[in-house]
Design a protein that fits this description.
Layout lengths: L6 H15 L10 E3 L7 E3 L1 H8 L4 H10 L3 H6 E6 L3 E6 L1 H10 L3 H8 L7 E5 L14 H16 L3 E5 L8 H12 L2 H6 L1 H18 L1 H15 L3 H25 L17 H9 L3 E4 L2 E4 L12 E4 L7 H14 L5 E7 L3 H17 L6 E7 L2 E2 L16 H19 L5 H21 L7 E2 L2 H4 L7 H18 L6 H4 L8 H10 L2 H11 L3 H20 L7 H24 L9
Parallel strand pairs: 5-6, 5-10, 10-11, 12-13
Antiparallel strand pairs: 1-2, 2-4, 3-4, 7-8, 8-9
Bound molecules: arginine.
Arginine binds next to α14 and β10.
Length: 584
């Protein structure tokens, strides 16, 4: 058991077995936690509660359990009882080495990880920008966090479907089509369609604001589009296609590939059924011409009904989201849905989920798992939402270009001798990775301040620091003319001895816990923090313990530690959506 992927889980199983063997009355929960490193690697906290509920002496229960532990556990762990009845487990050097020797390749790590969410299936709704506009910095978080979560869930064994729920059917199209018909600049359109659509939208918007007659015409355009007038649909289609092409460039750079891109328009012909069902079930009612759902039992929504059809008869965000959930459960057979969306939409999702729970229960459908995976705002250094100097939103594509330009400076300082093209290619990976990582390294629910200097730096919890650690380990092997994790080298490894070897190994075996924490709470920053700490342990080891020594067994075990650090750093960064480098 000592070598199973998730040591905390296997200890849990071992304590269960010990509880049965010792004749403890069921149920007993071991409650394994990561321990304070001074006391060991893991701690079982469950004895206290168990003993208290049964008026037993906790230390005596702990002693019974420890005595009943299988021999393989005591061979790999030093086990001790502390305080009133905590059981501490400290991995022995042999236990550490055994784990490292059974987790040599990415497939072995992945196979272990894939048991934690096996059997689950999730639709991840993320990115989901609105068409006819550029993606701006506000769209960064959903794309980056959504992708990392999709990867983490897949790695943990879940079936994941990535769905880009684009906003391709909003009221913006009335004004846009109005302006397009009157003011389009065909040369500009050919050059950069999105720029031109944005110009037209702004023009239509200010014209409509200045003149009610224009506002009415724009409304009429929207009605014609919604009624399916071919000429309007043509313009609309052109706008969406150009938008998707522009989005795709950003997705390519961020390593994102969607399984589905079912925008709001896809649900157009599916909303009537929602109105009908919800009204028939008595959940929805007319109010001032609109169709609404009340949740009077919910203090926050007492005065604020959930509007599912506007008073002009048009569908809205809510109707589309309800139709989407029906489609996902009926047609895609989904049992779980994640919405990686700004936390300012919290009320919308709460009302949506309450409505679906009532509706599905009343219609005897199984209620899917629905979660709003929320995130905070990207702020400028002035503490306000990040904008350009003239108050415009920062375009995501410009932001990524600037990132790779800034990273280029860093790469040139570090490695002036590499050919120019290679420095550029490295800079693109470091720059993009820095932007992704700075976003992921924060607890997603908080706002964060976007600061270039902190983000593209070789110091601190940054992408550049971690990518550099990876490249450095590659170079250790390159210089020795060896391949990482070569069994012919590693077979000679002797037992771990020095404090820095041991500290690094103790950190390496915690990778499964980091994955479980990040994927369990859908918070990638737990993985970031782990990787950062791992890179720190590696640095300490590398400066204290020379790797290329003559003593073959010592050299072999140190190379093994290098190779495993490399494996876990590379896997971890890839799970976050970053690309890694062999040279930097
Ligand atoms: N298009 C929306 C926006 O830009 C986000 C959509 C999120 N997904 C959803 N199913 N509501 O705010």
């Amino acid at each position: 058991m000592s070598v199973s992927f998730n040591l905390a889980l296997s200890l849990d199983a071992a304590l269960q077995a010990a509880a049965t063997a010792a004749g403890l009355e069921a149920p007993f929960a071991a409650e394994i936690r990561g321990a304070d490193p001074r006391h060991g690697d893991f701690q079982a906290n469950g004895v206290l509660g168990y003993a208290k509920a049964r008026k037993l002496n906790p230390r005596a229960v702990a002693q019974q359990l420890v005595a009943a532990l299988p021999a393989e556990v005591t061979a790999n762990y030093e086990v001790s009882i502390a305080g009133p009845g905590f059981i501490n487990f400290a991995l022995r050097p042999a236990g550490l080495l055994a784990w490292l020797q059974t987790h040599v390749r990415a497939e072995q790590l992945a196979a272990g990880a894939a048991t934690t969410r096996a059997g689950e299936s999730w639709i991840v709704d993320y990115s989901s920008p609105n068409t006819a506009k550029q993606m701006h910095v506000g769209h960064l978080r959903s794309a980056v966090i959504g992708e990392a979560i999709a990867r983490l869930l897949t790695y943990s064994g879940a079936k994941v479907t990535r769905d880009n729920h684009i906003g391709d059917w909003g009221t913006q199209f009335g004004k846009l089509i109005w302006a397009y018909k009157r003011h389009v600049d065909t040369a500009a359109l050919a050059r950069d369609p999105i720029e031109e659509f944005e110009r037209l939208y702004k023009l239509g918007n200010s014209a409509a604001e200045a003149d009610v007659a224009v506002m009415d015409e724009a409304r009429a355009e929207l009605v014609q589009l919604q009624a399916g007038k071919p000429e309007s649909l043509d313009v609309w289609r052109q706008i969406n296609e150009a938008s998707l092409r522009a989005f795709q460039k950003v997705y390519d750079q961020l390593g994102i590939r969607f399984d589905l891109t079912l925008g709001e328009s896809f649900y157009n012909d599916k909303v009537a059924r929602i109105y009908e069902e919800l009204s028939r079930l008595g959940l929805a009612q007319e109010s001032l011409g609109a169709l609404v759902v009340f949740h009077p039992e919910h203090p926050r929504f007492k005065e604020q009904p959930f509007m599912i059809r506007k008073s002009d008869g048009a569908a809205n965000y809510a109707s589309t989201d309800l139709a989407t959930i029906l489609y996902r459960t009926e047609v895609l057979q989904a049992t779980g849905m994640l919405y990686v969306v700004d936390k300012r939409q919290g009320d919308h999702f709460e009302q949506l989920f309450i409505t679906v729970r009532k509706w599905f229960t009343a219609s005897q459908r199984p209620v899917p798992r629905m979660e709003h995976v929320d995130f905070g705002t990207v702020l400028g250094e002035n503490g306000k939402p990040l904008k350009t100097r003239d108050g415009e939103n920062i375009k995501l594509k410009d932001l990524l270009t600037e990132a790779s330009d800034r990273a280029y400076t860093l790469v040139c300082e570090k490695n002036p001798d590499l050919p120019e093209a290679e420095r550029r290619a490295i800079a693109e990976i470091v720059g993009t990775g820095s932007v992704q990582y700075a976003d992921l390294a924060q607890n997603r629910s908080s706002d964060y301040v976007f600061a270039w200097d902190r983000m593209i730096s070789l110091e601190g919890n940054t992408a550049a620091y971690l990518l550099y650690a990876v490249a450095r380990i590659h170079s250790i092997f390159r210089k020795l003319g060896l391949t990482p994790a070569d069994p012919a080298t590693e077979v000679a490894a002797s037992g771990l001895e020095t404090p820095t070897e041991l500290a690094l190994a103790h950190k390496l075996v915690k990778f499964p816990e980091a994955i479980q924490l990040a994927s369990g709470q859908m918070r990638p920053h737990f993985l970031c923090l782990y990787l950062y700490e791992l890179a720190g342990e590696f640095s300490a080891f590398y400066s204290a313990d020379k790797v290329a020594v003559d003593d073959v067994p010592v050299r072999a075990r140190r190379l093994l530690l290098c190779a495993r650090t490399l494996l876990i750093l590379e896997n971890g960064l890839q799970l976050l959506g970053l690309r890694t480098l062999a040279r930097m």
